[in-house]
Amino acid sequence: MRIKYGNIETDLIWNWPTKEIFHDWKKDFLELEESKFFEIYVVGRFVDTLVLGHENNTSDIDVILIGDKDIKKIEKLIYEGTKLGLEKYQTFFDVLWFDKLPIYAHMEKKESMEVDICILSDKWIIDGKIQKQYYNIKQISENLWNMKMQYPTLKQKNRISEGYSYLEPIRIL
After folding, report:
1. CB 30 within 8 A of CB 42
2. How far apart are CA 11 and CA 31, in angstroms?
3. Is there a contact between 74 and 144 (Cβ–Cβ < 8 Å)?
4. How far is CA 120 from the centre of its chain?
């Protein structure tokens, strides 16, 4: 399949995330100079793989950067981290910057938190077709878009309502 996500465009044979892929990617990612300026977390369902050993329970790895809104550093980490995942590991690392980290494990079903986020692109294109598009978003640099989102998302709230319990985020730096 052909993936276009922002300025990253590559042919991809999708690899489901594994502990091995994650640890190899993490080693490469943490070599980026800009990583030292952020707290970096893995969140979402891939935490189940790291903590409980559940394999193939998610198609991506959610990585959250927390720290000052330094656009150049954020853009470099999000772009390089995503590109590294897609091109070298054939796995989608959804690298985002958040102004604060929502802890889904501590949120009640009706509770929500507004989060200022930075993301690589306003759309995700597979084989020439838009698969996901954000509308309330603005471009702030070549490879960085900014928007406000409510967390947990509707998808996350549905999972919580169905009995899924999110684990605590794992800090990797």
Report:
1. no
2. 25
3. yes
4. 10
CB distance 28 to 84 below 8 Å: yes
Contact 17, 24 (CB under 8 A): no
Are 93 and 61 a contacting pair, CB within 8 Å?
yes
Calculate ∠ Cα 121-1-144, nearest 5°.
10
Rg of the chain over CA atoms, in angstroms?
15
Q: Where are the domains of the chain?
A: 2-171
Q: Which of 109, 112, 122 is nearest to 149 (CA)?
A: 112
Nearest CA-CA partner of 15 in 92, 79, 81: 92
pTM: 0.95
Q: 90-146 pLDDT, tens per residue?
A: 999 999 999 999 998 777 666 789 999 999 999 999 999 999 999 999 999 999 999
Q: Show the DSSP H helices in 1-40 as ranges.
A: 19-30
CA 59 to chain centre: 11
Tokens of 34: 């800009």
